[in-house]
Amino acid sequence: MAFPVRLCALVGRFSDPRVAESVNALIPHLLSREVKVIVSDETPYSGDTAGIVRMPEKDIGPNADLVIAIGGDGTLLYAAGLVARHGVPLLGVNRGRLGFLTDVMPQNMFPCIDAALEGRLQADERPLLAACLNYANGAVAEALALNDVVMQKLVTGRMLDFETHLDGTYVNTHAGDGIVVASPTGSTAYALSCGGPIVEPHLDVLVVAPICPHTLSDRPIVVSARSEIEVKLLERPDTRAQVTCDGTVLGELEPGDRLCIKAAAETITLLHPAGHDYYRLLRSKLHWGRGNFER
After folding, report:
1. Contact of 82 with 63, CB cutoff 8 Å
2. Cα(80)–Cα(42) distance, rounded to whole angstroms?
3. Of 231, 157, 147, which Cα lies nearest the Cα of 184?
4. Can you give the pLDDT at residue 51?
5. Which domains are assigned to the chain?
6. 1-13 pLDDT per residue, tens
7. Dihedral sign, Cα of residue 231, residue 243, residue 216, residue 187
8. How far is the C-alpha of 253 from the C-alpha of 255, rounded, in Å?
């Protein structure tokens, strides 16, 4: 990250009134700090455009010194996809609901952003997942994910039969709705709803969690992040699945295709306010330690 920050990108659903409120307050503040503001060329903004740099979203990563995601965790995950290959840090302002990743509250936005511009926030380096779809015809589709890579059924009501392999070794044959491979960061997302464990963000592991398995013995497992996980669909009438990376569609999977998932060479840097405490965040979001003995 370059200091002092000269180009700061804002990413969010600007049509959301809560996001627009923060954006309309933040842009003049950044401009007063002599920081140019990058926004998507499709972003609606009716204020003074002096100091505003518009560009396609795909160009934000190579040009920004800092990206501020305004919204919920989905917005931050989307922003992570824009900067994952460019080493640009992310700061999340929470205008969503749960907020495991967007941990700057609106009332603390200005002091936190000023600290970010000056390099005084806590940097938190998180691993990424690399997903590769190898099609039977030789084509390849690749993407990175901060939270998870998900393979799930494409046609509602039809169960999938599929195999998992770990570093070339057969693990299991599954029947169900699909499978989630999550990073430690993503352990509190979809994988958690599949019965997976909460993993401390800096552990060198991956979570493999079946989605709605047809048998109760098919349980989530934790494997080394140095492993490569391979998923293959088995032949079944009308078998089709979809693969998503942090909710963005990578492609469809059919029998004969292979989905390979491993830790990426790239990492992403999240910025946190001073005193950031992961376990305090868990207590807040999951309501731990509250009312256990109240009558």
Report:
1. no
2. 19
3. 147
4. 82
5. 7-121+273-286 (3.40.50.10330), 128-266 (2.60.200.30)
6. 555 788 999 999 9
7. positive
8. 7
103 is catalytic: no
Q: Is the dihedral of CA 35, 266, 190, 223 positive or negative?
A: negative
Reply yes or no: is the peptide bond before residue 17 cis, omega within 30 of 0. Answer: no
Q: Give the residue from 109, 8, 12, 15 showing the smallest Cα distance to 70.
A: 12
Please name the residues in contact with 108: beta carbons below 8 A apart, sequence gap of 6 or more: 273
Task: Order the strands of the 178-182 sheet from edge to edge.
Answer: 221-224, 205-211, 178-182, 148-153, 241-245, 248-253
Please give the single-letter amino acid code of residue 175: A
Q: Looking at 234-286, which runs of residues are DSSP E strands?
A: 241-245, 248-253, 258-272
Distance CA 77, CA 58 (A): 15
Helix (H, G, I), strand (E, B) or coil at 151: strand
Spell out the SS3 assignment of 52-121: EEEECHHHHHHHCCEEEEEECHHHHHHHHHHHCCCCCCEEEEECCCCCCCCCECHHHHHHHHHHHHCCCC
Q: Give me the catalytic one of 48, 59, 73, 238.
A: 73
pLDDT value, residue 145: 98
Contact 146, 246 (CB under 8 A): yes
Which pLDDT score, from 0 to 100, does residue 81 have?
Answer: 94
Q: State in Å, rounded, how far the first CA of the chain is from the last one.
A: 51
- C-alpha radius of gyration, the chain, whole number: 21
The tokens of 195 are what? 């019965």
In total, the chain counts a number of residues equal to 295
pLDDT at 34: 92
Could you say which residues of the chain have pLDDT below 70?
1-3, 45-48, 98, 291-295
What pLDDT shows up at residue 291? 64
Contact 239, 254 (CB under 8 A): yes
